[in-house]
Request: fold
Amino acid sequence: MSIPCDIANPRLAPEGVRRIEWAAREMPVLRLIRERFQREKPLRGIRMTACLHVTTETANLAITLRDGGADLRLCASNPLSTQDDVAAALVEEYGIPVFAICGEDNATYYRHIHQALEHGPQLTMDDGADVVATLHKERRDLLAGVVGGTEETTTGVIRLRAMAAAGALGYPILAVNEADTKHLFDNRYGTGQSTVDGIIRATNILLAGKVFVVAGYGWCGRGVASRARGMGAQVIVTEVDPVKALEAVMDGYRVMPMAEAAKVGDIFVTLTGDINVIDRQHLEAMKDGAILANSGHFDSEINLKALQAMSEGKRQVRPSVDEYRLQDGRKLYLLGEGRLVNLAAAEGHPAAVMDMSFANQALGAEWIAQNAQKLEKKVYEIPHEVDEEIARLKLHAMGVQIDYLTEEQQRYLSSWQEGT
Reply:
């Protein structure tokens, strides 16, 4: 039977299989879930559309969902993040329809989303909420058949909560991003390592001694700041939230407005989920040779239109590095076209971190399938017991043991009579 797909090259499948299997070695929690899914088939017959980064780690999630009985279609959540050998392997070796090509243009990107929706999904799985947005804006004929979905990212959760607040959200969404075993690890350790990895792969520069500006001190920003400092960079944090700014100060970083940081920074990374965090006035103040990167979900955090308008020439000087020659003679360097630098210029998060994130996605899909009929059309957080179970499985896989409360301790914590 022919599998619906649009991929770059099916002959890349053998390489993709080898890399998917390598990632699986670092994903023991997802493996345990997959084994249970194979036995119980909790997603039997459920049509799913997943819009995720098509990487080796995502492949292991897709296989788990398939083995749980889901009728899954997968498309990319970023035009530059697809690993073409992985897409080929999923189609050719694992029988999963994939619509994703690395470097696809905007029109192809959205055509792929539409193709992934063609089987009329009952569940959606998003990384940035593009599938949800497409359903609500362009495919409302399919909306009534969708009973629930999950969302992977901070950016996507922000969009979905805005929709829910406006009464526009058409079905319940589980915010996988809000799980402690997701944002405390994926966002901090995963983004921290993979963002720095992407910058170094793209530029081969030495971070030690550089002034490294981190825009946003959420969990992703914390991770990048920590890793950059660990490699010897002088880290500056910019923030709009006074509590997060205070935390950055207490963590030992310099904190200042972007207008000031722009004058002294060598490397800039945005991780806010907002628009034009680096704007024209900041670009005008930057030093010759400054490097710009984004690790937020969309390519809107750096004002690319302003950068282009200020430039009299542009050329690619290395893979994933574009040199913009400004009209005043300065040169600024943009990494990965302003898209997610950890995926545009590197391989994304390590598999050991995505093990927990995708365990949340798999169990989240199971939970929402079981509970969708009694849920309202709003954004829900992952149940705490699911979060704890994933942490327990991860510790077990790592050979780490922890204490458990005694009956006496449990009674004490649930009582109010005892005190000083």
